[in-house]
Amino acid sequence: MSGKGTVFAALFSGINVGGNRIVRMAELRSFFEDLGFSEVASYVQSGNVVFCSGKGAAASLTDKLEAAFEKNWGFHSRIMVRDAGWLERLVEENPYPEVAGEPTKLHAYALEREPTAEEIARLAEKCTGPESFEVKRDVLYLHAPEGLGKSVFANLVPRTLKVPGTARNWRSVLALLEMATKAGA
């Protein structure tokens, strides 16, 4: 926690995808500032916001943001709010360090909760292509050697795992960690 409060990242799901549910990042930053958050910064158009909050835990901030977002934009977006420590752990625990330099081939899914052993086993049965994955607590790491766009398995992850989440490529993960570090300085 800095003098500005705790640093968080809000990872939005399902906005600005395929020209639908358009949310401009300048408007999203203003939305966060209007809610009283500081050090607000966004990264790319897919809904990544780093911010500081003087009060509230990730779960209560998630509820607050989802309700206010739906009221403001008229549609629901699942939002995963995580603190800077979570981002640090995500990077430190990367089980695929050999592909970290190829950010389009490595993705991290922020999951709403830790999947059960049965859920992971069900997903492992579907992983029959060149991809590999590993789950560490509430993060699923996916190595897709041919990229996410060509991965049949990546499309199966949400339907098979049945744990809500949102994916970010490794470039976005590293950028968010850098932004969180700066916000907390």
TrEMBL record:
Domain of life: Bacteria
Pfam families found in the cross-reference section: DUF1697
Database matches in PANTHER family: BLL4334 PROTEIN (PTHR36439), DUF1697 DOMAIN-CONTAINING PROTEIN (PTHR36439:SF1)
Protein name, entry field: DUF1697 domain-containing protein
